[in-house]
Amino acid sequence: MTPRKNDYLYLINLLDDEDENVCAYAMRELMDHAEEAASYLAELQECPNELVRRRIHQLQTAILLRERRKRFAEYLNSRRFDPIAALIQSHLLWYDNDSVVVLQEAWRKFQLDFERSQVKTPAELGAFFREQGFTGTSESTLHPEHYCIGVVLDNRTGANSVLSLIAAVLARMADLPASVVRMENDFALLISEAQTAYEERLLLLPGADFKTLPVGAAHTPAELDDRDAVRFATLNLLSAAVNSDSFRYIFTLSSAISGVNEPWRMDFLPYPYSPSEEPGDEKGPEQTHRPR
């Protein structure tokens, strides 16, 4: 048994200390060395001491969420950006008990259904979504599940912005150049009929039963790249977290979007979610509440 292992076991033994400050210190140290401590936490996660067991589970959940926040930020900054993989990571920030494998399988199944449909035109793409029973919802109707790809695929209901991004991915699979566009308070898919001699631009409207409309020469909708579309979906999850006054979700989502993992560096958040660094303030970095 190495001294390093002794250090971790000593900290784990402090998790049931009667002094809450001692317990908080132990949890903070274990979190700060999560990679090294993970195996020891796993060994003792079903120990007979109920309090230690519960706090180990809390630590393991916190470590998992930290990794997901880091992974989401990496996806957003990746050179080879995969919008579906990023939407899956965004989903996991809200539904933290869901499985990556299950979400990936749901997408693969949906992708196979699309491939079997042999879509070749924008009109056929709209017909595919209608046949699949999808319904688009306005961005002003703040339902977090409408921004989570797993629930969207299961319930066939999603925010217009998310459905537009999913449709863009499918359109490109059918060799149809496509991008998400924003029009005032709504979203749609700007898509080109590449098979024709004159490449006509069309709008596919999730909020209007996936109908297509021609884009006038004078009308140029504001295009979003895929990263911004995913950011928008995740920002709406953050709005839902603020609306529910949940610090855990507010911290998780805001740190994932910003790429910042430490609570005392979240000074861009509004009061009471942003810890103050003013001298003498009651909540300095060491006292900051850490989400589970």
Give the strand content: 5-15%
Distance between the termini: 30 Å
- Helix content percent band: 40-55%
- Spans of at least 5 consecutive residues whose pLDDT stays below 50 are 276-292
Number of helices: 11
Rg from C-alpha positions? Answer: 23 Å
**In the residues, how many domains can be counted?**
2
Write out the strand line-up for the largest beta sheet, numbering strands in chain order. Answer: 6-5-4-3-7
List keywords for this structure.
292 residues; 2 domains; two-stranded parallel sheet; elongated
Describe this entry's structure for a reader:
This protein is an alpha+beta fold. It folds into 2 domains: 3-71; 81-228, no CATH class. It contains 11 helices and 7 strands. It has helices spanning 3-13, 20-32, 34-43, 50-77, 83-94, 100-117, 122-131, 149-155, 160-173, 226-244, 247-258, and strands at residues 135-137, 157-159, 178-183, 186-193, 200-205, 211-214, 222-224. A 5-stranded antiparallel sheet has the order 6-5-4-3-7. Strands 1-2 form a two-stranded parallel sheet. Strand 5 and strand 6 form a beta hairpin. Helix 4 packs parallel to helix 11 (247-258), helix 5 runs parallel beside helix 10 and helix 10 (226-244) runs antiparallel to helix 11. The longest helix is centred in the first third of the chain and has 28 residues, at 50-77. Residues 276-292 have low confidence and may be disordered.
Fold blueprint:
Elements: H1 3-13, H2 20-32, H3 34-43, H4 50-77, H5 83-94, H6 100-117, H7 122-131, E1 135-137, H8 149-155, E2 157-159, H9 160-173, E3 178-183, E4 186-193, E5 200-205, E6 211-214, E7 222-224, H10 226-244, H11 247-258
Helix pairs in contact: 3-4, 4-5, 4-11, 5-6, 5-10, 6-8, 10-11
